[in-house]
C-alpha cells in the first residue's frame, strides 16, 4: 500500500480504496496495485468514486429504489421487444433495475430478486413499503429543505456541489421557481432541477402512470389468439330482426366479434357466455387443390352442467356482416381504445337500414366493456361546456351538471 498525492499527478491508473487526508486543495488516497481505475488531469469524478465504493455520490438520497432503464435497439436486431419509441423515431427496450442496496435488503429478507423484478407496479410498491427506502427517495423528501441543506454545506466548499432536485411529473412551474429562488437565497453556486417525464431519457420512473410519447403513430402487435377464447353473448334487434353477437375476450377485454341472425345459429336463451374454439380444417378448391381454413365453434355449459358444442359459427352468418366483424376485431386486438372504436363504427358510412341498426347493436355490445369513470376525450358538455366528461355504464355523462347522452 502506498500514498499517492494527486497534486503531482496528471494521468495515472489507480484503484481508490480510502480517502486518507485532504489539504491544500489536494487529496491523498491509499491505492493497491491489484486493480486499476483511470484518473484524468489529477481529478476524479465524484460519480466514479461512488460507483467504485458503492455509496452515494454526495448529499443525495437514492434516486429511485426501482426504475426502468432503456436500451437502444438496432433496427437490424431480430427477436427484440420494442417498449418505447422516442420523438426521433428510435426504438428502445425497457428493463427493470434495482438499487444495489435494495437488492441486499431483498436478499436479507428472503425475497427472490428475479421474481420481484417481474412484479407489477402495485405489487412492487407493497414490497418497497416494507423496506428502509420507503418515503426516502428523491421524489419523497422536502425539496426546499434539501436546497437549504445544500446551501449550508456550500459554505464550506470552494467549488459548487453536484445536487439534482428531482421533482414529480405533476410539479407546477411555481414550485420549480421556488426551488431556484431558494437556491439563490441559500447561497448555492449551482442547482439542477429535473421534473420526471420532462424529457425522454434512458432512466424512467417505474410508476404505473409513466407513459410513452403519445404523439407518435406506432405499429402494434396483437396478442396471439389462443385456440379457445372466453366469450360473452349479446342479443339485439337489427332492422326488426333478432340478432346475436359473440365477443371473444382476452383478459376481460374484447378481442374479436361475430354477429349474425339468431335463427342462423340457435343458442338457448339462458346462455349468456361460453367459449369460441378455433379449429383448422382442410378443404379443396374447385380445382381439387387442398388448402387450410379456419372454423369457429361455440361451446357452452347446459343447465345440467354438461358442455355442448355448436359447430360452424363462421359458416352460419351472412358474409357481409362477417367481414364487418373482422374489421372491428382487427381494430380491437391491436389496441384501439373502445371509446375510439365506437366512434369509428358510428362514423362509418354504410348503405341500408340493416347496416345502420347493426352499428347500433355493435356499439351497445362494446359499451359494456368501457370502464366506469373513464375520461371522455375531445368532447364537452352541451349544457354547461364542461370538458371533463366521464363514461358511466357506457354512456357519456357530465359530472358537473348531470347531463347524459343516453337521457
SSE map:
Blueprint: E1 2-5, E2 11-14, E3 18-23, E4 26-31, E5 37-40, H1 46-53, E6 66-72, E7 84-85, E8 91-98, H2 100-108, H3 113-117, H4 121-129, H5 143-154, E9 164-167, H6 173-185, E10 192-195, E11 203-205, E12 228-238, E13 241-250, E14 253-261, E15 273-284, E16 290-301, E17 307-310, H7 313-316, H8 319-333, H9 338-347, H10 353-367, E18 390-392, E19 395-397
Helix pairs in contact: 5-6, 9-10
User: Which percent bin holds the helix content?
Assistant: 10-25%
| Alpha-beta content class | alpha+beta
- Note the total helix count: 10
Query: How are the strands of the biggest sheet laid out side by side?
Result: 14-13-12-15-16-17
Distance, first to last CA: 84 Å
| β-sheet strand percentage | 25-35%
What oligomeric state is this? Answer: single chain
Radius of gyration: 31 Å
What's the main sheet like? 6 strands, antiparallel
H/E series, N to C? EEEEEHEEEHHHHEHEEEEEEEEHHHHEE
What's the average pLDDT? 76
- Could you tell me the number of beta strands? 19
Silhouette: elongated
User: What are the segments in which pLDDT stays under 50 over at least 5 consecutive residues?
Assistant: 1-45, 209-214
Features:
alpha+beta, elongated, 19 strands, 4-stranded antiparallel β-sheet, disordered N terminus, 10 helices
Question: What can you see in these coordinates?
Answer:
The structure is a single chain. About 25% of the residues lie in helices and about 30% in strands. It is an alpha+beta fold and about 400 residues long. Among the domains are: about 50 residues, no CATH class; about 55 residues, no CATH class; about 110 residues. The strands form 6 sheets. The chain has a 6-stranded antiparallel beta sheet with strand order 14-13-12-15-16-17. Strand 16 and strand 17 form a beta hairpin. The chain is elongated. About 15% of the residues are buried.
